[in-house]
């Protein structure tokens, strides 16, 4: 049964996660299934019907991924800019 105190439950979960990772000799092997699934998600997004050549699909997926993260970065910059402007006293 989970601990009733959320902070204690978080501490227990963190300890378990660190212990698990400490016992993982090759981190890349543990993460490989997730990495493959993430790459397949991008490939499915750019080529839903599977008609592209594998090399072209991989390049298109890499571009889609880069575009996504650049948009995310730009949104973060804009949000920080708005927050900073809101904190400045009105002139």
List keywords for this structure.
78% helix, mainly alpha, 91 residues
Question: What report would you give on this structure?
Answer:
This protein is mainly alpha-helical and 91 residues long. Helix content is 78%, strand content 0%. The longest helix has 34 residues, at 54-87. The chain starts with 5 loop residues before the first helix and ends with a helix. 2% of the residues are buried. The model has no long low-confidence stretch (mean pLDDT 94).
The share of residues in extended strands comes to under 5%
Largest sheet: none
User: How far do the termini sit from each other?
Assistant: 57 Å
Q: Percent of residues in helical segments?
A: over 70%
Number of strands: 0
Number of helices: 3
H/E element sequence: HHH
Estimated radius of gyration? 21 Å
Based on CA inertia axes, which overall geometry fits?
flat
Low-confidence region ranges: none
| Average of the residue pLDDT scores | 94
Structural class: mainly alpha
């Amino acid at each position: 049964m989970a601990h009733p105190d959320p902070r204690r439950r978080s501490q227990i979960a963190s300890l378990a996660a660190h212990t698990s990772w400490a016992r993982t000799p090759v981190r890349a092997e543990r993460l490989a299934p997730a990495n493959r699934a993430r790459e397949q998600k991008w490939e499915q997004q750019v080529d839903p019907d599977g008609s592209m050549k594998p090399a072209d699909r991989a390049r298109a997926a890499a571009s889609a991924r880069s575009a996504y993260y650049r948009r995310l970065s730009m949104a973060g910059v804009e949000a920080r800019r708005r927050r900073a402007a809101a904190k400045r006293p009105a002139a």
